[in-house]
Amino acid sequence: MRTLSLLLMPVVMFLTTQAHASTHLDRMQAFYRKLGPFETTFTSTPHDPLQGAGNSEKGRVLVGSEGRFRLTYRTPEYKDFIYDGKQVFFYEPEASQVTITESLEGSDLAVIIRLLSGKSVDLAQFDIISSGADEVQIARKASAPKGGLHRAVLTISPQGALKRASIMDPAGGRVDYVFGDVKAKPKLANKVFDFKIPEGVEVQRVKL
Question: Where are the domains of the chain?
């Protein structure tokens, strides 16, 4: 009987981890679905496996209906990362460049944005590596479609708000996003997510 218990223990631990992770993610999605359009602040810090932490960037996040979002970097330089519901625009004024992608799904941030907008995420594409009191770590399965999020650690408040997201790439680098308190914006108009390409900038179109 003791041998059987030892054999079953990893299975029980796995199922418990899956249940905890699902509870965390369900709570977070329920929180954002109830909240609706909102605004928050963010700080992002890149980490290179050899050089360590890079310079932090700070800005504002607006999340609207149908998954629309706008990440506006304010310091140290202004940049805009916008999804208008159809295309993704990344505008870098100092480089006089706009990068356009036709889909959000190939982006590392796609899963995070879907969670922030209260949309469901296909967890069948991910393994649940660990789940603590307020953390969930997910990793893309080898059998899942290529591209998109590789691995992430999500820190979720008891209320369900995403407080921190560490997004990791296959080469060992990562970007840490720390989010501030959320502010509901029920009257947030879709035109906030419209983007008009400025004249004279270089336009690059990328297929993910």
Answer: 8-206
